[in-house]
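Mods, move this if it's the wrong board.
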Amino acid sequence: MSDVAVSSRLLIVEPNVTEQAAIQAHLEDNGFAVQVCSTYAEARQVCQNIQPALVVLTLVEPLSEGIQWITDLHQQWQNLPILVSSTPEIVATGIRALRLGAWDYLLKPMTQLSVLEHAICKCLERARLEAENQRYKKEIEETNKRLKDSLDILEQDEAAGRSVQSRLFPKATWSIAGYEFMHCVRPSLYLSGDFTDYFEIGPDCYGFYMMDVSGHGASSAFVTVFMKSLIDRCRFGEHADLMTDPKKLLAFLGEELFQAKLGKYATMVYAVLTPSKNQVYYSVGGHYPHPIYWSGTEGRYLPDKSFPVGMLPKATYENREITLEPNAVFALCSDGVLELIPNLTVAQKELALLGYIKDNHESVEKLFDVLLSQQHQSSIPDDVTVLLLRRTPTV
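Not the wrong board. Structure tokens:
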């Protein structure tokens, strides 16, 4: 039985009673639900009560009546698969039917009904894919509408905009399959040019990222919303395969951001966690400071040389991977974190940050408080974001 046969109700319009019986028997033997009619009038009556999954229509005289019914079906149900057949003498009418909305055309006589079955399966699979694409399109449109509404609010009021942007962030902590995601964000102004997110991609597969858009304030915040929209479009649309290939996703985002001509770029890290393998698969787009790995006994940076996302067209990136040991932490920080550590060289600040993560990696709030305590001014100079992925200690 074909997979597409399940719950697929077919309407067969065939005036030849012998052929009608043979077609019905063959298709029902292969799992299809079949309704047969001998005339266009009967078929019209059936379609007043149900919408078939597919119509198989044999063109016979009067041809104009068959053509008119195809036109009516296409107007009533634009995505209804219609498969027409005819003898070679009226092939021109069959071609006309294709132009009017029929999906496929077969010549009679059909010596092997498996040919008809194959054509039906192809049409039903195409219909399924088109319905799925429509659903994805609707989801994307709804997401884009929500994001557009968010942008409108940001333009009206920065204070309201901060509230809206905060709702786009994931929940502060999220525990899954022996791991815990934690994050904190502190903007230097009302709105943040930093953004982070984590989410499920599929079974045993979780995506997470951090981005730091150039500049500060509303214009950079708008770009974070734009970038989140692109990522959500990939998650729920035709580019879903990019979500498990970090380097390809960064290249896609960079090209989209560059083509948008917003005058902005973003440093970024995108990663994929596979809990069953205790593995993180990641790619870096010019992000600084580099990702930090705390093994449970020592910490180190995971260096990478790459361009920021959206700075250059056609930029390429590399995939890297690391296996997380028990009690390990994979940490991402925006460069504003280093701005909080005063009176030290860059190398000294990097070393100090490793120490802060070593001592406070069990709680992102505690780590954040320690970092903010280094800042003696009333305001922070740059957006500050920390994302921790922590392998939960086993009991």
